[in-house]
Automatic annotation (TrEMBL):
<feature type="transmembrane region" description="Helical">
    <location>
        <begin position="306"/>
        <end position="324"/>
    </location>
</feature>
<feature type="transmembrane region" description="Helical">
    <location>
        <begin position="194"/>
        <end position="214"/>
    </location>
</feature>
<keyword id="KW-0472">Membrane</keyword>
<feature type="transmembrane region" description="Helical">
    <location>
        <begin position="33"/>
        <end position="50"/>
    </location>
</feature>
<keyword id="KW-1133">Transmembrane helix</keyword>
<dbReference type="Pfam" id="PF14897">
    <property type="entry name" value="EpsG"/>
</dbReference>
<protein>
    <recommendedName>
        <fullName>EpsG family protein</fullName>
    </recommendedName>
</protein>
<keyword id="KW-0812">Transmembrane</keyword>
<feature type="transmembrane region" description="Helical">
    <location>
        <begin position="168"/>
        <end position="188"/>
    </location>
</feature>
<feature type="transmembrane region" description="Helical">
    <location>
        <begin position="120"/>
        <end position="138"/>
    </location>
</feature>
<feature type="transmembrane region" description="Helical">
    <location>
        <begin position="6"/>
        <end position="21"/>
    </location>
</feature>
<dbReference type="InterPro" id="IPR049458">
    <property type="entry name" value="EpsG-like"/>
</dbReference>
<feature type="transmembrane region" description="Helical">
    <location>
        <begin position="84"/>
        <end position="108"/>
    </location>
</feature>
<feature type="transmembrane region" description="Helical">
    <location>
        <begin position="330"/>
        <end position="349"/>
    </location>
</feature>
<feature type="transmembrane region" description="Helical">
    <location>
        <begin position="246"/>
        <end position="264"/>
    </location>
</feature>
Length: 377
């Protein structure tokens, strides 16, 4: 199991998410202060963590190496995204400890994510909870570069809705310098703004499943090979295998999610008063299309399209908000909450391996206090 502190946070989020769903009016102003406080807590916990999460020690070594071996004129040739080197060198030159770097990335990522949730989700606490288990542990307390990159892509969604292409492209460029996989989000500007009927969307999912045996990721040559190598450098395999068969529990969950989306899609297209429903739905379905297309390759199917999956919590919040009846509303909400808690228990094997069964911070674990005594220009 994860440490009780993490469960306490989860329970508090669940309480506020229930308040959102059960309210008959816009409850956002009422929960704004608790929401901000929860975001601050998440930033603090992941920003001051000690020896917790995938790639913790590789990031420590990158931090030391950036200040020991890389000059300022070499930051674009170091093999690691420039933003990580820049932040590492600034913090190193100021002789600040390593946890400041973690805190910087946590602040960028979680603040941008939470801002997107509050602005575009009718139930921001529910969406924050959906992100918390387990994305918070895998990304913002693990693969921090990709976590920050995805957060910037979420931030760029406002430029998709406003049809501001140049600002969107600038956001993707910045996200790319945090993590190369952001390039997969480049078509999102056009994907989100295409009208795709329920039937055509369903056909796209079926087509994606059918072409998977052809291994379409090989069609893109060195572009995806480069991204794959970068993804592998993030120690993807640090996550413990769960001993599943080819048709795993995760596959069943994806089918359930697709059933929820398609069961209410026509109704939401016709009646939903949320202008962004189709845009967010298109982006979420893009995740499933890429996932099934690249199903033969774990790296491509899971890590590469995950930026599109980051919209799922917002989409489900919209679906719950616009449910046909109270029965549908509470059924979908209850199903998803139960799923998240079951997932938290299923996460136990990885939690123990990545030290989330403990609650180590810089105050209890000195590993976060790494200071560079000497730096190079």
């Amino acid at each position: 199991m994860i440490h009780p502190v993490f469960y306490l946070i989860m329970i508090i989020m669940t309480f506020y998410s229930y308040m959102e769903v059960s309210s008959n009016y816009n409850i956002k102003p009422k929960i704004k202060i608790p929401y901000i406080c929860m975001v601050i807590v998440l930033i603090f916990i992941t920003g001051t963590r000690g020896n917790r999460g995938a790639d913790y020690w590789p990031y420590v070594r990158f931090f030391v190496g950036a200040n020991t071996f890389i000059r300022w004129n070499q930051i674009f040739d170091s093999g690691v995204e420039p933003t990580y080197i820049i932040f590492s060198k600034i913090i190193g030159n100021l002789h600040l400890p390593f946890f400041i770097l973690l805190f910087t990335f946590a602040t960028i990522s979680i603040s941008l994510r939470s801002s997107f949730y509050y602005k575009f989700s009718p139930y921001p606490f529910f969406t924050l909870l959906f992100y918390y288990m387990p994305t918070y542990f895998f990304q913002d307390s693990g693969h921090i570069r990709q976590g920050a990159s995805i957060a910037i892509c979420l931030f760029s969604f406002q430029y998709i809705t406003q049809r501001k292409l140049l600002k969107f492209l600038l956001s993707i460029l910045i996200a790319y310098y945090f993590h190369k996989t952001a390039i997969i989000f480049l078509p999102a500007y056009w994907i989100a703004n295409i009208y795709i009927s329920t039937f055509k969307a369903f056909l796209l999912i079926v087509l994606s499943i059918l072409i998977a045996p052809l291994e379409p990721y090989n069609w893109f040559g060195e572009i995806f090979n480069s991204l794959s190598a970068d993804t592998l450098s993030d120690a993807y395999n640090s996550y413990q295998k769960l001993g599943e068969s080819t048709f795993s529990v995760g596959e069943i969950v994806k089918i359930c999610f697709l059933v929820i989306i398609f069961s209410f899609d026509k109704y939401n297209i016709k009646t939903a008063n949320n202008y962004n429903y189709l845009k967010i739905r298109n982006l979420c379905l893009t995740y499933y299309c890429i996932y099934y297309c690249f199903r033969q390759n774990e790296i491509f199917s899971i890590r590469l399209p995950i930026v599109y999956d980051a919209f799922a919590g917002t989409l489900f919040a919209i679906i719950i908000k616009n449910s046909k009846s109270q029965i549908n509303k509470y059924f979908i909400y209850s199903f998803l909450i139960i799923y998240l808690y079951l997932l938290s228990f299923r996460f136990a094997a990885n939690a123990k391996k990545l030290n989330f069964d403990k609650f180590d911070t810089l105050f209890t674990d000195g590993s976060a206090i790494v200071i560079i005594d000497e730096t190079i220009d």
